[in-house]
């Protein structure tokens, strides 16, 4: 009897270990559902939301403008308490099916520990955004939920049609696959696993916290904006020393946009710096993927299972 119990407990433990890495994808949206637009970081006025509202309504969705939109507290969209209260309200409201962060900048990390995710866990919903929203993506990922790295309301007017369409596919649960030419700097190979990551500067800043990215056996996505090249090296050096790079299955590098250099050049561009820190790892690596601080910012499902194939002629990224 005791042996049977031990065998049962062992099997349950093994099952839990296998399921531990599986993330919950929130329910797909349907016409008539409501999307809330909130500001978790930099302040934003309401006038520039017209393209985003028109887009959501064209998809048959309703829009709720959060109380943080239009607030002004120096650089931020209201105080930490105001921004946190707005996000909390949208997470807790069962009638809200997706929460769309209006823009990035800085400030989400200031409110992440003020959020109670109890209601979210019972009623998960899509969280959408990129850049500073990487804080929320990784926090939700560590809680066991997938989210969408994609364009934000501020970017709708300048986004490519393909980027807009990719977000629609994500929200409405349609198959998502990308095929692009393989860059000459890419490393060939194939891998599959959970897709994680986001903005490199934010990932770097989250190390050592409960929101830290877990890279073990994952496909890591990286992008960044307006950074000095030696900063890129320093951040990757820290990820490497923390053990975040050694167990990766693959790497997707998006836009490394508006990189800066010093009067005395660093000597390598951003892609070359990434390649240097991944040297010796026998994993597929693709550069210049269509995501990040670019107009063609294709949606990615962080926390979902993905398959990456980097061949000589083309690169294919598919989300299951």
TrEMBL record:
One Gene Ontology term of the molecular function aspect: carboxypeptidase activity
Entry-linked InterPro entries: Carboxypeptidase_A_C_sf, Class_I_gatase-like, LdcA_N, Peptidase_S66_N, Peptidase_S66C, S66_fam
Gene Ontology BP term (one): proteolysis
Coiled-coil region list: none
Domain LD-carboxypeptidase N-terminal: residue ranges: 35-150
Pfam families (alphabetical): Peptidase_S66, Peptidase_S66C
All residue ranges annotated as the LD-carboxypeptidase C-terminal domain in the record: 192-308
Origin: domain of life: Bacteria
Active site per UniProt: 131, 223, 293
Leader peptide range in chain numbering: 1-19
Keywords: Carboxypeptidase, Hydrolase, Protease, Serine protease, Signal
Protein family per UniProt: Belongs to the peptidase S66 family.
Protein name: LD-carboxypeptidase
Taxon lineage: Bacteria, Pseudomonadati, Bacteroidota, Flavobacteriia, Flavobacteriales
């Amino acid at each position: 009897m005791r042996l049977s119990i031990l065998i049962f407990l062992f099997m349950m433990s093994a099952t839990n270990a296998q399921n531990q890495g599986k993330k919950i994808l929130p329910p797909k949206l349907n016409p008539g559902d409501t999307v809330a637009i909130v500001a978790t970081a930099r302040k934003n006025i309401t006038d520039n939301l017209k393209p985003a509202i028109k887009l959501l309504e064209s998809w048959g969705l309703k829009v709720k403008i959060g109380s943080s939109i239009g607030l002004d507290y120096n650089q931020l969209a209201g105080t930490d308490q105001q921004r946190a209260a707005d996000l909390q309200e949208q997470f807790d409201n069962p009638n809200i099916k997706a929460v769309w962060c209006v823009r990035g900048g800085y400030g989400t990390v200031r409110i992440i520990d003020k959020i109670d995710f109890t209601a979210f866990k019972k009623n998960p919903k899509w969280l959408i955004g990129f850049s500073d929203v990487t804080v929320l993506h990784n926090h939700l990922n560590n809680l066991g939920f997938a989210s969408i790295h994609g364009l934000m309301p501020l970017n709708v007017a300048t986004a490519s049609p393909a980027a807009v369409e990719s977000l629609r596919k994500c929200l409405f649960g349609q198959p998502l696959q990308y095929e692009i030419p393989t860059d000459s700097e890419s490393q060939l190979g194939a891998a599959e696993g959970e897709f994680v990551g986001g903005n490199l500067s934010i990932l770097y800043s989250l190390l050592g916290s409960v929101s830290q990215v877990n890279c073990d056996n994952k496909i890591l996505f990286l992008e960044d904006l307006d950074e000095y090249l030696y900063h890129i090296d320093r951040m990757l050096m820290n990820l490497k020393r923390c053990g975040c790079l050694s167990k990766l299955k693959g790497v997707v590098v998006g836009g490394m946009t508006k990189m800066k250099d010093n009067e005395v050049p660093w000597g390598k561009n951003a892609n070359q710096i990434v390649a240097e820190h991944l040297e010796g790892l026998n994993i597929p690596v693709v550069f210049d993927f269509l995501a990040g601080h670019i107009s063609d910012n294709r949606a990615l499902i962080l926390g979902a299972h993905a398959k990456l194939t980097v061949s000589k002629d083309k690169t294919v990224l598919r989300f299951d």
